[in-house]
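Limitations

Structures in this collection are predictions, not experimental determinations, and the ligand pose is part of the prediction. Treat each record accordingly. The example that follows, with adenosine-5'-diphosphate as the small molecule, is included so readers can see exactly what is and is not provided: the inputs are given verbatim, and the output is the predicted complex.
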Amino acid sequence: MIYAGVDIGSTTSKCVLIDENRKVLAFEIMFTEFDRNASGEKILQAALDASGLSIEDIAYIVSTGYGRKAFLRTNKDIPEIIAHAVGTVEAMPGTRTIIDIGGQDSKVIELDESGAIARFEMNDKCAAGTGRFFEVLTQRLLGIEMSELSGLIYKSKNAPTISSMCTIFAETEIISYLSQGVPKEDIVAGVSRSIVRRVIGMGKAGQMSFKEPIVFSGGVAQNPAIVEEFSQHLGKPVTAVKLPQSTAALGAALTAMKQYEKEKAQ
Ligand code: ADP
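Predicted complex:
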């Protein structure tokens, strides 16, 4: 039996296929298109192609993420927080805190000893503190590739404080720093520091004490300099999960297996 987890995020869509032994057979990712249903279809097909399987082989599909309800083929949809918790505990058993920064939201999730969600906080109202801020910074303001970001942050010697709470105002602040001749590396370090502070502040405001082990996921976790920044600010080790954009889709695939077995037994 094969189970599919489809995570239709605001920025990227992902699909994980697993077998009945929880073995991952495929993980595929692409940018989410305007048509969320088509994005779900395309990413599922990409995972089937990558693993040499066909749609008839899939016993159950669970969707998650921002576009989860738009994906018509799904058998069940689940909230992202649950998918992240299930997927992260599978990838890194014993996780007590998840920090996830995606394209248009950021989350801090605290898990109890059994891996169940104890509390969580989420920002999906404002681009500050999300990957979108890095997209604006790299593409619009600095004209650099996302892959250059981490190396630049490491080079910074004197990062300015980005004090604006809103991306639009922060943009104006950054343009002003650029015109004063502040080097790119200091600007990117300032922006990453402001995002890290904002996400930690959000977790603390939600009464979270950042219990260890702390696992970082989402697209922004691909940036080693930001992973280190979190460790430094928290004074605790923070580990980026392997394939950080895959955890919610993995959690959805595992839920698909559980749900299929439950429905079969009824
Ligand atoms: P979602 O699930 O919300 O669609 P993802 O978890 O796939 O989003 O994350 C996408 C975000 O990851 C993009 O906004 C992008 O800016 C960010 N991102 C990807 N690589 C890096 C990197 N090296 N440094 C910082 N941000 C990154």
